């Protein structure tokens, strides 16, 4: 029997109405897998590869059979999407199919009217589309309804799976799935949809930790569509030129190349989005042309974001959205002619996802325009400017993209912030819970399997401490919400576990210099680049979010510092391959070629001095670590114990002797041979996640060691540098 023949008649009618001559290969294989079995699935294909239909055509067919059999009330299918806009879009797509099948399609998030939710609660059936936060809210505020709503689920569909693999939000979702199965007393099939997966085995473990080998991957053929790439380089900010000149030049190029079509420009931080959107809209006004360029980021109103999204879908209105990652995911915004990236993203997975927004129409190429801003070199320029690290990272990201590589999630992370959240959520759901029940639900059966019983009890004791007061213990041993815990859980903001990087106030000599988002670990003795200058961190107050700094003696600061983010070891490895190579990628413009030549020339000079431990002056040493952020940061923390100032870069550490009474090689030797290394001898930034503030310093240190630091890796790195 063919895949088409296995589908319900209403679904077959919808397929005929689309004019499809046949199902795509990935859709046919998915139909057989869904209808003939009960295993969990991962359906992975390129953007616009038919993943949604691959999952829902057979699932809707099963739901039709359920309805005809007259089974009890309850939703047939649960769809979880990361964005409200994505849910709204998928609702529209699924309504067309389900109209013929007689199944309701219910969107459920903060913008959906309460009347729609009330009707769905009274008579739950069909497909429920929901965000992780709204699903959490159901467990907390409507826990008695959970069995009624979900007892006859055939499957849970998780869209954009790759965005959840290595995130607190993904851990929250896995915990909710476990709690749902406990509440309903049945195993529910899980189907993940993704366009980008770095390690399928880790993705299978994420989807079903207790039985990853039973998760069936269905991978579509990679699209062979034409790809057009360009990387333009800019040198600015020199003696006679402001860094603003490069922004103006990029804006002019975008205006000339993108006007008259639909495009996405990923500009990074929200303030940069606003800067480029303002420049481009001003150019439209000055040329007496209709407005085509609009900002799109999470701080803007929902009405404005939806206005931009609707314009992108309207073929009559050329529209370019200058955005953060808000338009990276699978929101249907129609056919996009080009994707532009200003600066390098921090993950190849993100770059691939963004590029996949272009070239979706048959016969149209995918187009990526990358822009790299570097400093105009002076005699006093810092080594990092001379190495053109931003440009080299951009090239490395593109090369890895072409090699179809992307990052894998960290499988040893403790995720203690989200554990705190889920402890409070389960207690609220049940009106109280024993420590044993909490550990079984969240750790033994749930996603926090790296947390031992001893550590779990440490977390509980901390949450019950008088100064924290989130939970308290009744006379019978039952754990209840304390006064602070009740107030926390009752606030609407509780349901989300994620947050943007914390803004720290930067203070020098009693004067506030501004605020800086911090997503990397910092400690006294390390240096930062802020407002075009180097600063040594003197004190760090994690709870108050204050960095006390003083001017650093570590030479001239790079004109363009990097944003906060974590770079994978493989990206750094590729960067060094580029620096050591001779091939010039064909997609580089003339300026980018010149910048790359300068980078290779500087790297060759550094290697003539030394290949690993490189003296840059009487008191400054450069370490060519060839490692990503985690090992680099760990070694930097170990070195500052000896009195060094340390600045981290992609694949390098810059070390200033400062107060150290020991040479850099001797310090590395001690680190490599030490049985134990105290990375936390002074204040270190440890609070990165939403519920970290409720944990003790010891627990925060353990959380950091599980994901943001690599002690053994740093010791091995120190030993390697000495060879």
Describe the structure.
One of its GO terms (molecular function) is DNA binding. Its EC number is 3.6.4.13. The protein has 723 residues and is α/β, with parallel strands linked by helices. The protein has 5 domains: 3-219, Rossmann fold; 227-403, Rossmann fold; 416-485, Arc Repressor Mutant, subunit A (Orthogonal Bundle), CATH 1.10.10; 503-551, SH3 type barrels (Roll), CATH 2.30.30; 610-722. It contains 26 helices and 24 strands. Strands 3-4-2-5-6-1-7 form a 7-stranded parallel sheet, sandwiched between helices. A 6-stranded parallel sheet has the order 8-13-12-9-11-10, sandwiched between helices. A 5-stranded mixed sheet has the order 17-16-20-19-18, with no helix packed on it. Strand 16 and strand 17 form a beta hairpin. Helix 2 packs across helix 5, helix 16 (389-402) packs across helix 21 and helix 23 (629-640) crosses helix 26. The protein starts with a helix and ends with a helix. Mean pLDDT is 88; it is low at 559-563.
Number of strands: 24
Backbone structural class: alpha/beta
Radius of gyration computed on alpha carbons: 27 Å
Helix content: 40-55%
Specify the oligomeric state.
single chain
Largest sheet: 7 strands, parallel
EC number: 3.6.4.13
Protein name: Probable DEAD-box ATP-dependent RNA helicase SA1885
GO molecular function: ATP binding; ATP hydrolysis activity; DNA binding; RNA helicase activity
Domain Helicase ATP-binding: 32-215
């Amino acid at each position: 029997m063919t895949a088409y023949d296995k589908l319900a008649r209403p679904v077959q009618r919808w397929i005929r109405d689309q004019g499809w001559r046949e199902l795509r290969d990935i859709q046919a294989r998915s139909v057989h897998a869904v209808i003939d079995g009960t295993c969990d699935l991962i359906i992975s294909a390129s953007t616009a590869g038919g993943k949604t239909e691959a999952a829902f055509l057979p699932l809707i067919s099963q739901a039709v059979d359920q309805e005809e059999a007259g089974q009890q009330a309850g939703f047939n299918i649960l769809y979880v999407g990361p964005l409200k806009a994505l849910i709204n879009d998928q609702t529209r797509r699924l309504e067309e199919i389900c109209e013929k099948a007689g199944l309701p399609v219910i969107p459920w998030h903060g913008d959906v009217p309460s009347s729609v939710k009330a009707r769905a609660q009274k008579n739950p059936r069909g497909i429920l589309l929901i965000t992780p936060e709204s699903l959490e809210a159901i467990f907390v505020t409507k826990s008695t309804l959970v069995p009624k709503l979900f007892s006859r689920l055939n499957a849970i569909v998780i869209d954009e799976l790759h965005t959840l693999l290595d995130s607190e939000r993904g851990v929250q979702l896995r915990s909710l799935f476990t709690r749902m199965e406990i509440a309903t007393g049945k195993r529910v099939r899980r189907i993940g949809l993704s366009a980008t997966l770095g390690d399928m085995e880790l993705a299978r473990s994420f989807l079903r930790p207790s039985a990853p080998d039973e998760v069936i991957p269905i991978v579509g053929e990679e699209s062979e569509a034409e790809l057009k790439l360009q990387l333009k380089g800019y040198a600015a900010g020199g003696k006679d030129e402001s860094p603003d000149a490069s922004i103006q030049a990029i804006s002019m190029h975008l205006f000339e190349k993108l006007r008259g079509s639909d495009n996405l420009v990923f500009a990074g931080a929200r303030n940069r989005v606003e800067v480029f959107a303002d420049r481009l809209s001003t150019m439209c006004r000055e040329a007496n042309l209709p407005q085509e360029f609009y900002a799109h980021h999470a701080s803007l109103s929902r009405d404005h974001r939806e206005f931009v999204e609707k314009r992108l879908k309207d073929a009559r209105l050329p529209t370019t959205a200058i955005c953060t990652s808000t338009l990276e995911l699978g929101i249907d915004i129609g056919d996009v002619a080009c994707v532009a990236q200003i600066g390098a993203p921090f993950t190849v997975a993100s770059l691939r996802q963004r590029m996949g927004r272009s070239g979706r129409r048959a016969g149209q190429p995918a187009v990526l325009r990358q822009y790299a801003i570097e400093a105009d070199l002076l005699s006093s320029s810092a080594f990092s400017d001379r190495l053109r690290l931003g440009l080299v990272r951009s090239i490395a990201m593109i090369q890895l993209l072409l090699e179809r590589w992307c990052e894998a999630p960290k499988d040893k992370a403790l995720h203690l912030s989200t554990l705190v959240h889920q402890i409070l959520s389960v207690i609220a759901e049940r009106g109280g819970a024993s420590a044993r029940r909490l550990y079984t639900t969240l750790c033994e059966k749930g996603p926090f399997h790296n947390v031992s019983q001893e550590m779990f009890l440490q977390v509980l004791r901390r949450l019950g401490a008088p100064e924290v007061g989130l939970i308290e213990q009744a006379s019978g041993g039952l754990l209840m919400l304390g006064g602070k815990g009740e107030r926390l859980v009752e606030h609407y903001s509780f349901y989300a576990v994620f947050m943007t990087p914390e803004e720290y106030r930067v203070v020098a000599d009693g004067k506030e210099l501004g605020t800086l988002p911090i997503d990397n670990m910092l400690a006294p003795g390390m240096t930062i680049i802020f407002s075009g200058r180097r600063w040594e961190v003197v004190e760090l107050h994690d709870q108050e979010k204050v960095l006390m700094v003083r001017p650093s003696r570590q030479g001239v600061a790079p004109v363009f510092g990097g944003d906060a983010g974590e770079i994978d070891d493989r990206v750094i490895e590729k960067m060094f391959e580029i620096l050591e190579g001779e091939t010039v990628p064909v997609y580089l413009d003339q300026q980018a070629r010149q910048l790359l030549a300068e980078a290779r020339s500087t790297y060759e000079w550094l290697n003539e001095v030394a290949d690993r431990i490189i003296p840059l002056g009487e008191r400054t040493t450069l370490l060519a670590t060839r490692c990503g952020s985690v090992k680099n940061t760990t070694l930097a923390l170990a070195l500052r114990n000896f009195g060094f100032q340390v600045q981290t870069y992609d694949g390098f550490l810059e070390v200033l002797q400062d107060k150290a009474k020991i040479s850099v090689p001797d310090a590395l030797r001690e680190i490599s041979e030490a049985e134990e290394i105290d990375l936390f001898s002074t204040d270190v930034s440890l609070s990165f996640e939403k519920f970290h503030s409720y944990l003790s310093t010891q627990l925060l240190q353990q959380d950091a060691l599980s994901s943001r630091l690599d002690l053994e890796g740093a010791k091995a790195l120190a030993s390697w540098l000495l060879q």
